[in-house]
Amino acid sequence: MLKNILVAFSLLIIVSLNLTAESLRIESSDLVKNLNSYKILDTRTPKLYKEGHIKGALNFPIDLTYEDKKQDGKLTSPVKMQNILRKLGLDLKSKIVVYDEGTFFDSARLFWALEVYGFTNVKLLNLGYNDWNQSDLPTSTNIEEPTQSNYIAEINRKRLATKFSTQIATKNPNQIIIDARPKKAYLGHVSSASRYGHIPKALNFPASHNINYTQENTKLKAIDTLKDVYKNIDKTKKIVLYCAVGRISATNYFALRELDYDVSNYDASWKEWGNDLNLPIVNLTKE
């Protein structure tokens, strides 16, 4: 009897953990039934948004998450971000769904940016707008005009890595660094910065490993598949992610958040690190 109770309790815990993991993404079938329950954010350009968007969606062009995209991937400053989020009528109680055209790179970056700025009820739509539109799901060309909120910007440092904190991570055995760029960039064959290679001790998990590409559509990989992708990453250690400008690494961030890792994203990423001659790098093409 006791053995059966323990087995049932264990199964309940497993189911509970899986439900928690799944809660960070939302399927199109669920969103369609609850369009009015969420603040839906479209990360595409204003032009594309005006041509058509998910019914009820607000436009948050992804470039607004960059302080200066031409320089690096640093996240928009608190004052600017506060103004953007207020105009969109968002506050920390908002239930939010984010989406992009279908790469998941921009929607994941906005997901991460919102978590950095204190939002705790954000979901990523597991379907891009292109596939949504082709599936004849509800769209609109109406421009929404939300009531301004009183949101106060406050940064969650646990989710944001910096040049300084990443330097510490290179020397801390309790931290793991993951490079989300393609293997060619990691090895040092190509680079978006003046130097080639990667941050010392970084492991290479290309962002594409988080996405399932099929002829029918593009979606995030299933939770169980992601568990297998990251099975060798120690869950007791803090993870620091980076790519070129903190964009594609946001998909790794999202995947690892779903798997309940302690993870942060280095916003300025390789564009900053690779251009700073005072910082160490590893170039495997020269070894």
Summary tags:
single chain; 287 residues; alpha/beta; five-stranded parallel beta sheet
Furnish the topology, listing elements before pairings.
Elements: H1 2-22, E1 25-26, H2 28-33, E2 39-42, H3 46-51, E3 53-54, E4 58-59, H4 78-87, E5 96-99, H5 105-116, E6 122-125, H6 129-134, E7 139-140, E8 160-161, H7 163-171, E9 175-179, H8 183-187, E10 203-204, E11 211-213, E12 218-220, H9 223-229, E13 238-242, H10 249-258, E14 263-266, H11 269-273
Parallel strand pairs: 1-6, 2-4, 2-5, 5-6, 8-14, 9-10, 9-13, 13-14
Antiparallel strand pairs: 3-7, 11-12
Helix pairs in contact: 5-10
Describe the structure.
The protein is of the alpha/beta class and 287 residues long. It contains 11 helices and 14 strands. The protein has helices at 2-22, 28-33, 46-51, 78-87, 105-116, 129-134, 163-171, 183-187, 223-229, 249-258, 269-273; strands at residues 25-26, 39-42, 53-54, 58-59, 96-99, 122-125, 139-140, 160-161, 175-179, 203-204, 211-213, 218-220, 238-242, 263-266. The strands form 4 sheets. It has a 5-stranded parallel sheet. The chain has a 5-stranded parallel sheet with strand order 8-14-13-9-10. Helix 10 links the parallel strand 13 (238-242) and strand 14. The model is unreliable at 5-22 (pLDDT under 50).
